[in-house]
Write a structure and sequence with these properties.
about 500 residues; Rossmann fold; nine-stranded mixed β-sheet; six-stranded mixed β-sheet; 20 strands; about 30% helix; globular; binds zinc ion
Protein backbone atom coordinates (compact mmCIF):
# COMPACT_ATOMS: atom_id res chain seq x y z
CA UNK A 1 0.00 0.00 0.00
CA UNK A 2 1.11 3.54 -0.65
CA UNK A 3 1.51 5.81 2.34
CA UNK A 4 0.76 9.50 2.40
CA UNK A 5 3.56 11.36 4.19
CA UNK A 6 3.76 14.99 5.28
CA UNK A 7 7.25 16.51 5.18
CA UNK A 8 9.07 19.78 5.81
CA UNK A 9 12.52 21.15 6.51
CA UNK A 10 12.83 23.86 9.16
CA UNK A 11 16.28 24.72 10.44
CA UNK A 12 17.72 27.31 12.76
CA UNK A 13 20.66 27.18 15.15
CA UNK A 14 19.96 29.95 17.63
CA UNK A 15 22.79 31.84 19.31
CA UNK A 16 20.94 33.34 22.26
CA UNK A 17 23.84 35.75 22.86
CA UNK A 18 23.36 37.39 19.46
CA UNK A 19 21.84 40.87 19.34
CA UNK A 20 20.21 40.08 16.00
CA UNK A 21 16.66 38.69 16.27
CA UNK A 22 15.69 36.15 13.60
CA UNK A 23 12.60 37.12 11.63
CA UNK A 24 11.09 35.99 8.34
CA UNK A 25 13.59 37.98 6.29
CA UNK A 26 16.48 35.95 7.76
CA UNK A 27 14.89 32.79 6.32
CA UNK A 28 14.38 34.44 2.93
CA UNK A 29 18.04 35.48 3.06
CA UNK A 30 19.28 31.88 3.34
CA UNK A 31 16.36 29.98 1.82
CA UNK A 32 12.64 29.68 2.02
CA UNK A 33 11.25 27.37 -0.67
CA UNK A 34 7.59 26.30 -0.86
CA UNK A 35 7.02 22.59 -1.56
CA UNK A 36 7.56 22.23 -5.30
CA UNK A 37 10.41 24.70 -5.41
CA UNK A 38 12.10 22.97 -2.48
CA UNK A 39 11.95 19.66 -4.33
CA UNK A 40 13.41 21.26 -7.43
CA UNK A 41 16.29 22.91 -5.62
CA UNK A 42 17.16 20.44 -2.87
CA UNK A 43 16.10 16.93 -3.86
CA UNK A 44 19.22 16.29 -5.96
CA UNK A 45 21.82 17.52 -3.49
CA UNK A 46 23.26 16.52 -0.14
CA UNK A 47 20.17 17.41 1.90
CA UNK A 48 17.75 15.69 4.26
CA UNK A 49 14.97 16.30 1.75
CA UNK A 50 16.91 14.36 -0.89
CA UNK A 51 17.04 11.43 1.55
CA UNK A 52 13.28 11.70 2.18
CA UNK A 53 12.65 11.71 -1.58
CA UNK A 54 14.95 8.71 -2.07
CA UNK A 55 12.85 6.81 0.47
CA UNK A 56 9.58 8.04 -1.04
CA UNK A 57 10.65 6.79 -4.46
CA UNK A 58 11.59 3.36 -3.18
CA UNK A 59 8.46 2.87 -1.07
CA UNK A 60 5.99 4.57 -3.39
CA UNK A 61 5.00 7.24 -0.85
CA UNK A 62 2.91 10.21 -1.74
CA UNK A 63 5.22 12.83 -0.22
CA UNK A 64 3.53 16.18 0.44
CA UNK A 65 6.39 18.55 1.10
CA UNK A 66 5.18 21.76 2.74
CA UNK A 67 8.36 23.84 2.60
CA UNK A 68 12.08 24.01 3.26
CA UNK A 69 13.35 26.93 5.30
CA UNK A 70 16.61 27.82 7.00
CA UNK A 71 18.10 31.00 8.37
CA UNK A 72 21.75 31.55 9.15
CA UNK A 73 22.55 31.12 12.85
CA UNK A 74 21.56 34.28 14.73
CA UNK A 75 19.48 35.40 17.70
CA UNK A 76 16.13 34.07 18.89
CA UNK A 77 13.43 33.34 16.30
CA UNK A 78 10.52 35.75 16.61
CA UNK A 79 7.05 34.40 17.31
CA UNK A 80 5.81 35.78 14.00
CA UNK A 81 8.51 33.93 12.06
CA UNK A 82 7.97 30.75 14.03
CA UNK A 83 4.21 30.78 13.40
CA UNK A 84 4.83 31.53 9.74
CA UNK A 85 7.01 28.40 9.52
CA UNK A 86 4.83 26.17 11.67
CA UNK A 87 1.23 27.11 10.73
CA UNK A 88 1.29 25.74 7.15
CA UNK A 89 2.47 22.41 8.54
CA UNK A 90 -0.23 22.25 11.18
CA UNK A 91 -2.87 23.32 8.63
CA UNK A 92 -1.76 20.69 6.11
CA UNK A 93 -1.82 18.00 8.78
CA UNK A 94 -5.34 19.00 9.81
CA UNK A 95 -6.70 18.95 6.28
CA UNK A 96 -5.09 15.78 4.94
CA UNK A 97 -5.38 12.13 5.72
CA UNK A 98 -1.74 11.45 6.54
CA UNK A 99 -0.08 8.21 7.59
CA UNK A 100 3.10 9.77 9.00
CA UNK A 101 5.27 12.87 9.26
CA UNK A 102 8.96 13.28 8.43
CA UNK A 103 10.84 16.45 9.27
CA UNK A 104 14.35 17.78 8.66
CA UNK A 105 15.06 19.91 11.73
CA UNK A 106 18.20 21.38 13.22
CA UNK A 107 17.51 20.84 16.91
CA UNK A 108 18.99 24.04 18.36
CA UNK A 109 16.17 26.50 17.70
CA UNK A 110 15.25 28.92 20.46
CA UNK A 111 12.35 31.33 20.01
CA UNK A 112 11.51 34.53 21.84
CA UNK A 113 8.62 32.76 23.58
CA UNK A 114 9.94 29.21 24.04
CA UNK A 115 13.43 27.77 24.57
CA UNK A 116 12.69 24.51 22.74
CA UNK A 117 11.74 25.44 19.18
CA UNK A 118 11.70 21.88 17.82
CA UNK A 119 9.82 20.60 20.87
CA UNK A 120 7.22 23.27 20.16
CA UNK A 121 6.90 22.28 16.48
CA UNK A 122 6.36 18.64 17.49
CA UNK A 123 3.93 19.64 20.24
CA UNK A 124 1.78 21.63 17.81
CA UNK A 125 1.71 18.71 15.38
CA UNK A 126 0.88 16.17 18.10
CA UNK A 127 -2.03 18.37 19.17
CA UNK A 128 -3.54 17.77 15.73
CA UNK A 129 -2.59 14.16 15.05
CA UNK A 130 -2.45 12.66 18.52
CA UNK A 131 0.13 10.11 19.65
CA UNK A 132 -0.50 7.34 17.14
CA UNK A 133 0.84 8.86 13.92
CA UNK A 134 4.54 8.04 13.52
CA UNK A 135 6.89 11.03 13.38
CA UNK A 136 10.49 10.77 12.18
CA UNK A 137 12.92 13.67 12.48
CA UNK A 138 16.50 14.31 11.47
CA UNK A 139 18.75 16.59 13.51
CA UNK A 140 22.02 18.41 13.03
CA UNK A 141 24.95 17.00 14.99
CA UNK A 142 24.86 20.29 16.95
CA UNK A 143 21.33 19.87 18.23
CA UNK A 144 20.49 20.66 21.86
CA UNK A 145 18.06 17.80 22.27
CA UNK A 146 15.31 18.10 24.88
CA UNK A 147 13.46 15.25 26.57
CA UNK A 148 10.29 16.61 24.95
CA UNK A 149 11.71 16.16 21.44
CA UNK A 150 12.55 12.51 22.18
CA UNK A 151 9.13 11.93 23.69
CA UNK A 152 7.16 13.46 20.80
CA UNK A 153 9.22 12.04 17.90
CA UNK A 154 9.30 8.26 17.49
CA UNK A 155 12.39 8.22 15.28
CA UNK A 156 15.37 10.54 15.67
CA UNK A 157 18.39 10.43 13.35
CA UNK A 158 21.25 12.93 13.64
CA UNK A 159 24.12 13.52 11.24
CA UNK A 160 27.28 11.65 12.16
CA UNK A 161 29.80 13.96 10.51
CA UNK A 162 31.34 17.37 11.22
CA UNK A 163 32.02 18.87 8.66
CA UNK A 164 28.46 17.80 7.89
CA UNK A 165 28.51 15.66 4.77
CA UNK A 166 25.84 13.01 5.54
CA UNK A 167 22.57 14.95 5.42
CA UNK A 168 21.14 12.84 2.61
CA UNK A 169 22.18 9.63 4.39
CA UNK A 170 20.50 10.76 7.62
CA UNK A 171 17.32 11.66 5.71
CA UNK A 172 17.28 8.29 4.01
CA UNK A 173 17.85 6.43 7.29
CA UNK A 174 14.93 8.28 8.88
CA UNK A 175 12.80 7.44 5.84
CA UNK A 176 13.69 3.74 5.95
CA UNK A 177 12.82 3.57 9.65
CA UNK A 178 9.55 5.39 9.10
CA UNK A 179 8.56 2.89 6.41
CA UNK A 180 9.37 -0.02 8.72
CA UNK A 181 7.33 1.59 11.51
CA UNK A 182 4.38 2.15 9.17
CA UNK A 183 4.44 -1.49 8.15
CA UNK A 184 4.47 -2.52 11.78
CA UNK A 185 7.90 -4.16 11.46
CA UNK A 186 9.44 -1.99 14.18
CA UNK A 187 8.13 -0.09 17.21
CA UNK A 188 10.76 2.57 17.79
CA UNK A 189 11.13 4.90 20.74
CA UNK A 190 13.99 7.25 21.57
CA UNK A 191 15.92 7.56 24.83
CA UNK A 192 18.30 10.36 25.75
CA UNK A 193 21.24 10.58 28.15
CA UNK A 194 23.59 13.46 28.93
CA UNK A 195 26.39 14.73 31.15
CA UNK A 196 26.81 18.20 32.72
CA UNK A 197 28.71 19.57 29.73
CA UNK A 198 28.07 22.60 27.54
CA UNK A 199 29.25 20.82 24.40
CA UNK A 200 31.34 17.88 23.28
CA UNK A 201 34.86 19.07 23.88
CA UNK A 202 35.77 19.43 20.20
CA UNK A 203 32.36 20.73 19.19
CA UNK A 204 31.66 17.35 17.63
CA UNK A 205 34.66 17.18 15.27
CA UNK A 206 34.32 13.80 13.60
CA UNK A 207 37.74 13.82 11.89
CA UNK A 208 39.90 13.67 15.03
CA UNK A 209 39.52 13.29 18.79
CA UNK A 210 37.13 11.36 21.03
CA UNK A 211 34.14 11.55 18.66
CA UNK A 212 35.83 9.21 16.17
CA UNK A 213 35.61 6.22 18.51
CA UNK A 214 32.20 7.24 19.87
CA UNK A 215 30.69 7.38 16.40
CA UNK A 216 32.24 4.05 15.53
CA UNK A 217 30.63 2.50 18.61
CA UNK A 218 27.32 4.15 17.66
CA UNK A 219 27.44 2.64 14.16
CA UNK A 220 28.22 -0.76 15.60
CA UNK A 221 25.30 -0.63 18.05
CA UNK A 222 23.03 0.30 15.13
CA UNK A 223 23.74 -3.13 13.63
CA UNK A 224 21.64 -4.81 16.35
CA UNK A 225 18.15 -5.88 15.27
CA UNK A 226 16.44 -3.97 18.06
CA UNK A 227 18.41 -0.74 17.46
CA UNK A 228 17.33 1.66 14.73
CA UNK A 229 19.53 4.73 15.19
CA UNK A 230 22.21 5.94 17.59
CA UNK A 231 22.77 9.69 17.51
CA UNK A 232 25.56 11.55 19.27
CA UNK A 233 24.78 15.23 19.41
CA UNK A 234 27.65 17.53 20.31
CA UNK A 235 25.24 20.23 21.45
CA UNK A 236 25.36 23.92 20.62
CA UNK A 237 27.04 25.84 23.41
CA UNK A 238 26.03 29.36 22.49
CA UNK A 239 22.52 28.82 23.80
CA UNK A 240 21.61 29.86 27.31
CA UNK A 241 18.84 27.31 27.78
CA UNK A 242 18.24 24.44 30.15
CA UNK A 243 18.68 21.73 27.49
CA UNK A 244 21.99 22.99 26.08
CA UNK A 245 24.70 20.37 25.81
CA UNK A 246 25.66 17.08 24.25
CA UNK A 247 23.38 14.05 24.29
CA UNK A 248 23.44 10.44 23.23
CA UNK A 249 20.16 9.23 21.74
CA UNK A 250 19.16 5.68 20.99
CA UNK A 251 16.10 5.00 18.83
CA UNK A 252 15.34 1.38 19.56
CA UNK A 253 12.92 -1.16 20.98
CA UNK A 254 13.06 -4.23 23.17
CA UNK A 255 14.99 -4.01 26.43
CA UNK A 256 15.44 -0.24 26.69
CA UNK A 257 17.55 -0.64 29.84
CA UNK A 258 20.24 -2.33 27.77
CA UNK A 259 20.19 0.53 25.27
CA UNK A 260 20.27 3.06 28.08
CA UNK A 261 23.34 1.42 29.58
CA UNK A 262 25.02 1.57 26.19
CA UNK A 263 24.12 5.25 25.78
CA UNK A 264 25.42 5.96 29.29
CA UNK A 265 28.72 4.29 28.43
CA UNK A 266 29.18 6.62 25.43
CA UNK A 267 28.20 9.69 27.44
CA UNK A 268 30.59 8.65 30.18
CA UNK A 269 33.42 8.28 27.67
CA UNK A 270 32.68 11.75 26.27
CA UNK A 271 32.80 13.08 29.84
CA UNK A 272 36.00 11.21 30.73
CA UNK A 273 37.79 12.65 27.68
CA UNK A 274 36.61 16.25 28.20
CA UNK A 275 40.22 17.40 28.57
CA UNK A 276 41.20 16.29 25.06
CA UNK A 277 40.80 19.52 23.11
CA UNK A 278 42.21 19.09 19.60
CA UNK A 279 42.28 22.70 18.41
CA UNK A 280 44.98 25.07 19.56
CA UNK A 281 43.28 28.47 19.67
CA UNK A 282 45.96 31.00 18.74
CA UNK A 283 45.55 34.68 19.46
CA UNK A 284 45.51 36.90 16.38
CA UNK A 285 49.11 38.09 16.80
CA UNK A 286 50.43 34.53 16.95
CA UNK A 287 48.39 33.65 13.85
CA UNK A 288 49.77 36.71 12.02
CA UNK A 289 53.34 35.77 12.95
CA UNK A 290 52.89 32.30 11.48
CA UNK A 291 51.27 33.83 8.38
CA UNK A 292 54.08 36.26 7.66
CA UNK A 293 56.65 33.45 7.85
CA UNK A 294 54.67 30.98 5.75
CA UNK A 295 56.43 29.74 2.60
CA UNK A 296 53.89 29.72 -0.22
CA UNK A 297 55.57 26.97 -2.28
CA UNK A 298 53.86 24.05 -0.54
CA UNK A 299 50.41 25.64 -0.78
CA UNK A 300 48.40 28.08 1.28
CA UNK A 301 48.30 28.47 5.03
CA UNK A 302 44.62 28.44 6.03
CA UNK A 303 43.74 30.48 9.13
CA UNK A 304 40.28 29.85 10.54
CA UNK A 305 38.80 32.59 12.69
CA UNK A 306 36.85 30.22 14.93
CA UNK A 307 35.29 32.89 17.11
CA UNK A 308 33.77 34.96 14.31
CA UNK A 309 32.07 32.06 12.54
CA UNK A 310 28.75 33.28 11.12
CA UNK A 311 27.81 29.59 11.02
CA UNK A 312 27.48 29.67 14.80
CA UNK A 313 25.79 33.04 15.04
CA UNK A 314 28.83 35.33 15.24
CA UNK A 315 28.40 38.62 13.40
CA UNK A 316 31.19 37.95 10.91
CA UNK A 317 32.43 41.52 11.21
CA UNK A 318 35.24 41.03 13.72
CA UNK A 319 38.32 42.97 12.69
CA UNK A 320 41.05 41.85 15.08
CA UNK A 321 42.49 39.15 12.80
CA UNK A 322 42.49 41.35 9.69
CA UNK A 323 44.13 44.14 11.68
CA UNK A 324 46.86 41.78 12.93
CA UNK A 325 47.52 40.43 9.42
CA UNK A 326 47.78 43.97 8.01
CA UNK A 327 50.05 45.13 10.82
CA UNK A 328 52.31 42.10 10.32
CA UNK A 329 52.58 42.95 6.61
CA UNK A 330 51.11 39.67 5.38
CA UNK A 331 50.84 39.68 1.59
CA UNK A 332 49.59 37.39 -1.17
CA UNK A 333 46.56 36.67 1.01
CA UNK A 334 42.79 36.57 0.88
CA UNK A 335 40.36 37.12 3.75
CA UNK A 336 36.67 36.48 3.95
CA UNK A 337 34.02 37.17 4.62
CA UNK A 338 33.71 40.49 6.41
CA UNK A 339 30.00 41.06 6.94
CA UNK A 340 29.36 44.76 6.48
CA UNK A 341 26.39 45.77 4.30
CA UNK A 342 27.07 49.47 4.88
CA UNK A 343 30.61 49.21 3.52
CA UNK A 344 29.35 47.20 0.53
CA UNK A 345 26.82 49.92 -0.25
CA UNK A 346 29.53 52.56 -0.12
CA UNK A 347 31.83 50.48 -2.33
CA UNK A 348 29.06 49.94 -4.86
CA UNK A 349 29.03 53.72 -5.49
CA UNK A 350 32.50 53.32 -7.02
CA UNK A 351 34.09 51.90 -10.15
CA UNK A 352 36.48 48.97 -10.26
CA UNK A 353 39.99 50.33 -9.79
CA UNK A 354 38.89 53.25 -7.61
CA UNK A 355 40.84 53.95 -4.44
CA UNK A 356 38.88 55.13 -1.44
CA UNK A 357 38.75 55.35 2.33
CA UNK A 358 36.29 53.07 4.15
CA UNK A 359 35.35 52.14 7.68
CA UNK A 360 35.27 48.34 7.65
CA UNK A 361 33.59 45.89 10.05
CA UNK A 362 33.36 46.01 13.82
CA UNK A 363 30.01 47.79 13.79
CA UNK A 364 27.64 45.28 15.42
CA UNK A 365 29.37 44.97 18.80
CA UNK A 366 32.92 46.37 18.95
CA UNK A 367 33.40 44.68 22.34
CA UNK A 368 33.25 41.27 20.64
CA UNK A 369 36.11 41.13 18.16
CA UNK A 370 37.19 44.73 17.64
CA UNK A 371 35.80 47.98 16.26
CA UNK A 372 35.84 49.31 12.68
CA UNK A 373 39.12 49.53 10.72
CA UNK A 374 39.74 52.80 8.86
CA UNK A 375 41.35 51.66 5.62
CA UNK A 376 42.51 53.00 2.26
CA UNK A 377 41.38 50.34 -0.20
CA UNK A 378 41.20 49.58 -3.91
CA UNK A 379 37.91 48.22 -5.23
CA UNK A 380 38.67 45.21 -7.43
CA UNK A 381 35.37 43.34 -7.87
CA UNK A 382 31.60 43.69 -7.36
CA UNK A 383 28.86 41.08 -7.62
CA UNK A 384 25.33 40.22 -6.49
CA UNK A 385 26.95 37.64 -4.18
CA UNK A 386 25.29 34.53 -5.64
CA UNK A 387 27.34 31.37 -5.72
CA UNK A 388 26.83 27.71 -6.49
CA UNK A 389 28.56 25.28 -4.12
CA UNK A 390 31.11 22.82 -5.47
CA UNK A 391 32.32 20.88 -2.41
CA UNK A 392 31.01 17.96 -0.36
CA UNK A 393 28.71 20.03 1.85
CA UNK A 394 26.85 22.34 -0.54
CA UNK A 395 27.75 21.00 -3.99
CA UNK A 396 24.97 21.89 -6.44
CA UNK A 397 23.20 24.16 -3.95
CA UNK A 398 22.75 27.89 -4.47
CA UNK A 399 23.84 30.33 -1.80
CA UNK A 400 24.15 34.06 -1.45
CA UNK A 401 26.16 36.63 0.48
CA UNK A 402 23.87 39.39 -0.82
CA UNK A 403 25.70 42.17 -2.68
CA UNK A 404 29.47 41.85 -2.25
CA UNK A 405 32.60 43.83 -3.00
CA UNK A 406 36.20 42.66 -3.11
CA UNK A 407 38.81 45.16 -2.00
CA UNK A 408 42.58 45.09 -1.93
CA UNK A 409 44.25 46.50 1.12
CA UNK A 410 47.99 46.05 1.55
CA UNK A 411 48.68 42.57 0.20
CA UNK A 412 45.27 41.18 1.13
CA UNK A 413 42.15 40.72 -0.99
CA UNK A 414 39.15 41.05 1.31
CA UNK A 415 35.67 39.75 0.49
CA UNK A 416 33.13 42.17 1.97
CA UNK A 417 29.56 40.83 2.03
CA UNK A 418 26.05 41.90 3.03
CA UNK A 419 24.66 38.66 4.52
CA UNK A 420 26.38 36.61 7.23
CA UNK A 421 27.35 33.21 5.84
CA UNK A 422 30.15 30.91 6.90
CA UNK A 423 33.06 30.19 4.53
CA UNK A 424 32.85 26.47 3.78
CA UNK A 425 33.26 26.06 0.04
CA UNK A 426 36.03 27.22 -2.32
CA UNK A 427 33.35 28.63 -4.62
CA UNK A 428 32.55 31.25 -2.00
CA UNK A 429 35.88 32.85 -2.96
CA UNK A 430 36.23 31.67 -6.55
CA UNK A 431 32.85 33.03 -7.64
CA UNK A 432 34.17 36.49 -6.80
CA UNK A 433 37.46 36.41 -8.71
CA UNK A 434 39.54 35.30 -5.72
CA UNK A 435 41.59 32.13 -6.18
CA UNK A 436 42.43 30.73 -2.74
CA UNK A 437 44.63 27.98 -4.22
CA UNK A 438 46.95 30.63 -5.65
CA UNK A 439 47.36 32.49 -2.34
CA UNK A 440 50.02 32.13 0.31
CA UNK A 441 47.55 32.80 3.11
CA UNK A 442 43.79 32.17 3.19
CA UNK A 443 42.03 33.62 6.24
CA UNK A 444 38.39 32.67 6.67
CA UNK A 445 35.55 32.69 9.17
CA UNK A 446 34.55 29.15 10.09
CA UNK A 447 35.12 26.70 12.93
CA UNK A 448 35.28 23.32 11.24
CA UNK A 449 33.11 23.14 8.11
CA UNK A 450 35.82 24.84 6.04
CA UNK A 451 37.92 21.68 6.38
CA UNK A 452 35.70 19.79 3.92
CA UNK A 453 36.79 21.93 0.97
CA UNK A 454 39.82 23.93 2.17
CA UNK A 455 41.91 21.26 3.91
CA UNK A 456 42.70 19.52 0.59
CA UNK A 457 44.32 22.72 -0.77
CA UNK A 458 46.05 23.73 2.48
CA UNK A 459 49.69 23.18 3.32
CA UNK A 460 48.78 23.90 6.92
CA UNK A 461 45.67 24.82 8.91
CA UNK A 462 45.71 26.94 12.06
CA UNK A 463 42.79 28.05 14.19
CA UNK A 464 42.52 31.39 15.92
CA UNK A 465 40.29 32.99 18.53
CA UNK A 466 39.73 36.61 17.54
CA UNK A 467 37.64 37.32 20.64
CA UNK A 468 34.43 37.58 18.61
CA UNK A 469 31.01 36.39 19.81
CA UNK A 470 31.73 32.66 19.31
CA UNK A 471 34.93 32.63 21.31
CA UNK A 472 35.63 29.19 22.77
CA UNK A 473 36.35 30.93 26.10
CA UNK A 474 32.84 30.29 27.40
CA UNK A 475 33.60 31.80 30.77
CA UNK A 476 33.46 35.22 29.02
CA UNK A 477 29.72 34.72 28.33
CA UNK A 478 26.97 35.22 30.90
CA UNK A 479 24.80 32.13 31.25
CA UNK A 480 21.72 32.23 33.48
CA UNK A 481 19.49 29.29 32.54
CA UNK A 482 21.99 26.41 32.37
CA UNK A 483 21.84 23.85 35.16
CA UNK A 484 25.02 24.33 37.23
CA UNK A 485 27.64 23.21 37.80
CA UNK A 486 28.54 22.53 34.18
CA UNK A 487 31.78 21.91 32.31
CA UNK A 488 33.69 24.00 31.26
CA UNK A 489 32.13 26.97 33.08
CA UNK A 490 32.62 25.73 36.63
CA UNK A 491 36.20 24.95 37.64
CA UNK A 492 35.17 22.18 40.03
CA UNK A 493 34.30 20.04 37.01
CA UNK A 494 37.64 20.53 35.27
CA UNK A 495 39.33 17.23 34.45
ZN1 LIG B 1 26.03 21.64 12.85
Amino acid sequence: MSYKILSAEIAHETNTFSRIATGQQAFHNRYYYPGEEALGRRANANTELAGFVDAAREYGWQLDHVHSAAAGPSGKVTRAAFDWLCDPLVDALGSGDYDAIILGLHGAMVTDFCDDGEGEILHRLREVCGRQLPIAITLDLHANVSELMCELADIVVSYKTYPHVDMRIAGRQAGDLLQAALKGEIKPQTLRVSRPMLEEVNGGRSDVGPMVALLEAAREWELRDDVHAVSINAGFARADIEAAGPTVLVTAQGDMDVHRRFAESLAEEMWRRRGEVMNEYLDVEAAATIAVRHEADAGPLVIADYADNPGAGAYGDSTTLLRALLEAGVSDACFGPVVDAVAVQQLWQHQIGDHLQISLGGKTDPDMGGGPLELKVELIHKSDGQYSGGGAMIGGLQGSFGPIAVIRVGGIEVLVVSLAEQMLDLQQFKSFAIDPQAKSVVALKSMQHFRADFEPIAARVIVCDSGALCTPRYRLLEYHKLPRPIFPLDPELDP
